[in-house]
Amino acid sequence: MSSLNIAVVGGSPDSRKAAASALAKKSHNEDVSFYHTVFSGKKVNVLEPSSYPEKPVSLAIALSGADFIVLLAEPSPQMGETLVLLSALGKSHGVLVGVHDVSAFMNEVGLHYDVFSTLDEAKTKILSFEAQRPKDAPPKAWLDHAFDVRGVGSVALGFMVQGTMHVHDKLPAKPGDVALEVRSIQQNDVDVEHAEAGDRFGIKYKGPAPDQLGRGTVLGDVPVFAEVEATVNVPKYWKELPGKQLHAVAGFQSVPCQVDKDLVPGTAVDCLIQFHKPVALRKDAVVLFDLNAKGLRVAGVAQDVG
Predict the structure, then answer these.
(1) How confident is the model at residue 140 (pLDDT cuts 50, 70, 90)?
(2) Which one of 65, 126, 151, 188 is at 20 to 30 Å from 225 when CA atoms are compared?
(3) Same CATH fold assignment for domains 140-219 and 224-305
C-alpha cells in the first residue's frame, strides 16, 4: 500500500483547517496539525501549519514532509512568502484551489500547478498522485511526537523519509547519543511488520525516555553537525539584507543559528551556518528564517546539506 503526504497551505488558518478536514481525519492538533485517511488502498497523510502565519517555522515543517501541495488561492499578506518557500524547496507537484487569480504570482516564482475552483473538483488530481521515494536507501525517519502510554510503554510517531524500518530494528536516535529498539509498528491503528519511505507510523519502542526524543529526532545512522558549510539561495524579494541571527528548519528540526556572511538578496551565498544546538543532517534542505523581519521572513534555503 503506497503513501501520499500532502501539505495544505495558503489561505487563512480556518480555510486550511476546513480543506485538510475535507481530505482526511484529524489526529493531532498543534502548531502543525496531522490528518490521516485511506483512499483506494493508499495511505493519505495531511499536514497543515496551524500556527502560520504567526509562526513561519510551522510552514517549513509542514512542507518538509510533503510530496504534494494543496495551495489555497486566497489573497493575503503571507501568500508571497508561501510561494517563495514553495519555489525554494522545489515543490513542483500541487494544485491551486480557489476562484482568485494568482497566476501572475505563481509564474513569478516558477510554479505551475493545475487550477481548480473547488477542493471537490481537485480531489481526484490530489489523491491520484504517486510519490517517488528512495526505498532502497538506509532507513531514516523523522519523529514528531514521543510519549508514554499506560499499559503499553514508550511510543513515538513519525514519518519514514527513506528506506525501510522493521520490527526489532535497533536505530540511533539523533542528534542525541542514544538508540532505540523497535518493538512493534502500527499504521492507521493496524500492526505491521515494517514501514517504508513515505509511511506515517507509530512505534512502541524500548530505549530512551520520551522526553529524550520528540519532534526533531532523526532515527537512523545520520551525521550530527554543530555547523555546516552550505550554499544558501537568498530570495530576490528582500529590500535589505536579512540579519545574520536566524532560525533554521531541517525536516522536523528547528533551531536558532547564525551565518558568517551577508545574505545578499537574489544571490547564492557560500557561508558557514552555526547551529545553537546540534542538528542531524544527511542530504536535507535547510530553511533559514529571519524571525525579526517585517514582511518576508524566508532568508534563504540550502539544499542537500550534510
Answers:
(1) very high
(2) 65
(3) yes
- Report pLDDT digits (tens) over 218-272: 999 999 999 999 999 999 999 999 999 999 999 999 999 999 999 999 999 999 9
- The values of phi and psi at residue 62, to 5°, are -60, -40
Note whether 227 and 275 are within 8 A (CB). yes
Q: Could you tell me which CATH number the domain at 140-219 has?
A: 2.40.30.10
Q: Are 298 and 263 in contact (CB under 8 A)?
A: no
Residue pLDDT, tens place only, 74-84: 988 899 999 99
Nearest CA to 134 among 94, 106, 161? 161
Boundaries of every domain in the chain: 3-127, 140-219, 224-305
